[in-house]
Amino acid sequence: MSGSKLNQINLDEVSEAEARKLMSEEHKNLGYRPPPGSLASEAQSVASKHETGFLAKHDTSTLEGAVREDAARISRERAGLEREGLSVQNLSEDQVRQLMSEEHKELGYRPPPGSLASEAQSEVRKKQRDIDHEAIHEAAVRDARRIQKERGESI
């Protein structure tokens, strides 16, 4: 991992301001608050122990590069690059919807967090920041009607 931005960050030299920036950037990259053990959470922990007024030592591009690397690592660990013979990161939005639907039918209930379908859905959302909320609403309505129909509930 030579040339890695992660290797250029010395947590003992991270200021509180840099730690806040790392947390913010990693949150944006992941789409959720960085978990314990992430670069951002470790940096915040170490920075909180510094005396106030501790000066920043890292340039912005180094911090942002390190965050991207760490967010990618966390995403790979959480979603798994390959699960059940599928490359989760390469699925289209339609394929993810089909995966969610198939897993939902097989389980009899919506796939829980950590499932292949929910992780794939998370990956698609990260790739497509400009989500068509109207299409999502319509898909949710269609799916709800399908579920009601499957369960024999009145529509």
From TrEMBL:
Residues 20-29, 48-57, 94-108, 122-155 have a biased composition (Basic and acidic residues). It comes from the Eukaryota. Residues 20-57, 78-155 are annotated as: Disordered. This is SMP domain-containing protein. It comes from Leucocoprinus birnbaumii. The lineage of its organism: Eukaryota, Fungi, Dikarya, Basidiomycota, Agaricomycotina.
